[in-house]
Design goal:
3 strands, 7 helices, 167 residues, mainly alpha
């Protein structure tokens, strides 16, 4: 029984699990998005988010600590360069996990894990929010017909202006 064990071992030895998480973290930082299983993504989130937090204080000591986890110079350079500038104002939650469905071979749940500040499609959606609508029929409020009455008057005012432009 697991009773309080916080680490998901992912059916691997300690050395294999650390190497796998290091490689996955490097791939996530370099490519900004990876596809993996749900269990690995959740384990990776706990591995990579503290590393991204360390980039807020760009010092030699922090770079060496991150390099000891990643073992990849290009990933460390990318993390402290481009990624650090985008996450400097964010208080955690640097990654997003999006479900993709199940894998055909073994039925494992597949997900796409990405860095939050790099998905342009999602960033555009948050800026253009739709007005809240309801599916209830309900009665229309009495103020709505009164608000509609001034609109024709506004159209009548605009019509002479259009006629003046035509002359």
């Amino acid at each position: 029984m697991r009773h309080g064990c916080k680490v998901n071992k992912l059916s691997r030895t300690h050395a294999h699990r650390v190497a796998m998480l290091s490689n996955m973290a490097s791939s996530l930082i370099i490519h900004k998005r990876i596809t993996t299983t749900m269990a690995k993504a959740k384990a990776l989130r706990g591995y990579v988010e503290p590393l991204i937090t360390k980039t807020k204080a760009d010092s030699t000591h922090q770079r060496r600590i991150v390099f000891s986890y990643l073992q990849n110079k290009e990933a460390v350079k990318e993390l402290f360069g481009d990624v650090a500038t985008k996450v400097v104002n964010r208080n955690g939650g640097y990654t997003r996990i999006l479900k993709l469905g199940r894998r055909l071979g073994d039925g494992a749940e597949m997900v796409m894990m990405e860095l939050v500040d790099y998905n342009e499609a999602m960033l555009k959606d948050t800026t253009a929010k739709k007005a809240k609508t309801t599916r209830r029929g309900g009665k229309k409020k009495a103020a709505a017909p009164e608000a509609a009455a001034p609109e024709p008057a506004a159209a009548e005012v605009e019509a002479p202006v259009a006629e003046e432009k035509a002359e």
